[in-house]
Design goal:
alpha+beta; 9-stranded mixed beta sheet; 3-stranded mixed beta sheet; globular
Length: 240
């Protein structure tokens, strides 16, 4: 077994894994200190991950996926969920872009990076953590699970808006006033544990997220004008 500790969402997690590759995958989040909880991967975890896999990923990918699943199951008790999205940091605040796989959220955030340059940072380009505080504030945390391109910064930031992205022939946006209409779209991007009680907890967290954050919908092209619209019409107004 490979033993190490990481810090994500201000939690120190001790990990017992099988592969050195998993340790290297988490290298930018390694830490010392007393663990808040311990995750030990088992052969059964890997078998379950492989059985539920929709493709033929390599063994080590299954291990990394199984590890994050077990971490997420623990963190939900602390009002923290995994949210499939590309998360960025501008002006000290976080913005989440979410869409169906392949629609182009990573392309859009890459264009924002080109536009904003030093005023832009990736938090996590794939699976950040959303933490809902007791006062309703939502904090976005990076993790090692940040996508194929490994676009991330080991940082956190308060969330200003969740932006649902779709491809369009022209660029347009709107603020969503009836948030309830987007509930199932939001839920589809949150990891829901298999355990019934923890699954219910994740759904309660989703309720609080949709209540406490502004929602937008954008239709965008694949050129820099799309990033200009998002920045001028949404991001700049949110960080005033």
């Amino acid at each position: 077994m490979v033993n190490f500790k990481i810090r994500i969402a201000n939690k120190v997690i001790e990990i017992n894994a099988f592969n050195e590759t998993t340790l290297r995958y988490c290298k930018d989040f390694l830490c010392d200190g007393n663990a808040d909880f311990v995750i030990t991967l088992t052969e059964e975890d890997l078998k379950n991950e492989i059985a539920n896999s929709v493709d033929n990923r390599l063994y080590v990918d299954e291990e990394i996926s199984a590890l994050y699943r077990k971490i997420a199951d623990y963190l939900v008790e602390d009002n923290i969920v995994v949210f499939h999205s590309s998360s960025i940091k501008v002006g000290g605040y976080a913005f989440l872009f979410t869409a169906r796989s392949g629609v182009g959220k990573s392309t859009h955030t890459r264009l924002l990076n080109e536009l904003l340059k030093d005023n832009f940072a990736y938090i996590n380009d794939d699976k950040p953590l959303l933490e809902v505080k007791n006062d309703g504030e939502i904090i976005i945390h990076s993790t090692p699970w940040n996508g194929k391109e490994r676009r991330y910064t080991n940082t956190s930031a308060p969330l200003k808006a969740i932006i649902f992205l779709s491809r369009g022939e022209t660029n347009s946006y709107k603020k969503i006033e009836d948030k309830s209409s987007e509930y199932f779209k939001l839920i589809s991007q949150i990891y829901l544990p298999y355990d019934k009680a923890k699954r219910q907890k994740a759904l309660q967290i989703a309720d609080r997220i949709i209540k406490n954050v502004n929602l937008y919908e954008i239709f965008v092209t694949k050129d820099i004008s799309a990033a200009e619209m998002t920045y001028e019409r949404i991001i700049k107004n949110e960080i005033k």
